[in-house]
Specification:
- It is built from 4 helices and 7 strands.
- By secondary structure, the chain is an alpha+beta fold.
- The model has no long low-confidence stretch (mean pLDDT about 95).
Length: about 170
């Protein structure tokens, strides 16, 4: 949780990737317990400027001290947020390219495409989305991959090409 004067103003969720065994296809030799994904981050608009980057920095310090097996952290930004990952850029993550991903919008909520094929008995979201597919609107959006190196020696094993930061504005 992210707190300001004892009030909860945000949350960061770290965990496995959608495919936990995929770490080795990003950084050669990575076991499941050697990397994390910053899966979700939300901060209320009352949080001051740069709070997202500060929250990430505090989280990384905590992970580094409590989980020494973790060597790198991956996260994705998608273009619906508008900044192409500017928060990760400000937090010293490195950029490793983009890919297109399918999302579904239903009743104002956005769902990942994977919920369309997930067993509906295992997920309320999957069940709702699948039952209402005819009302849902699909959209392909770009997702931008960022990596933070807790242990910089692992960077030599990355299987992706580092690229210049994408810009959400015209230069």
């Amino acid at each position: 949780g992210v707190y300001m004067k004892n009030n909860l103003v945000g949350v960061l969720q770290f965990g496995y990737a959608m495919n936990p065994a995929s770490g080795g296809s990003v950084v050669k030799g990575t076991a499941n317990d050697q990397y994390l994904e910053l899966n979700r981050m939300w901060l209320d608009d009352i949080a001051p400027r740069n709070s997202e980057s500060m929250a990430i920095a505090y989280s990384i310090r905590y992970i580094r001290s409590k989980f020494p097996k973790v060597k790198w952290i991956q996260s994705f930004a998608d273009e619906r947020c508008g900044g192409f990952g500017i928060v990760y850029q400000g937090a010293n993550f490195e950029y490793y390219g983009e890919h297109d991903a399918l999302f579904w919008t239903l009743d104002g909520e956005i769902y990942y495409n994977s919920l369309m094929t997930r067993n509906p008995s295992l997920s309320k979201s999957a069940s709702f989305l699948q039952a209402n597919k005819e009302r849902a609107i699909s959209e392909s959006l770009r997702q931008f991959r960022y990596i933070y190196w807790i242990d910089h020696r692992w960077k030599k094993n990355v299987l992706l090409e580092q690229k210049p930061y994408p810009k959400h504005y015209k230069e």
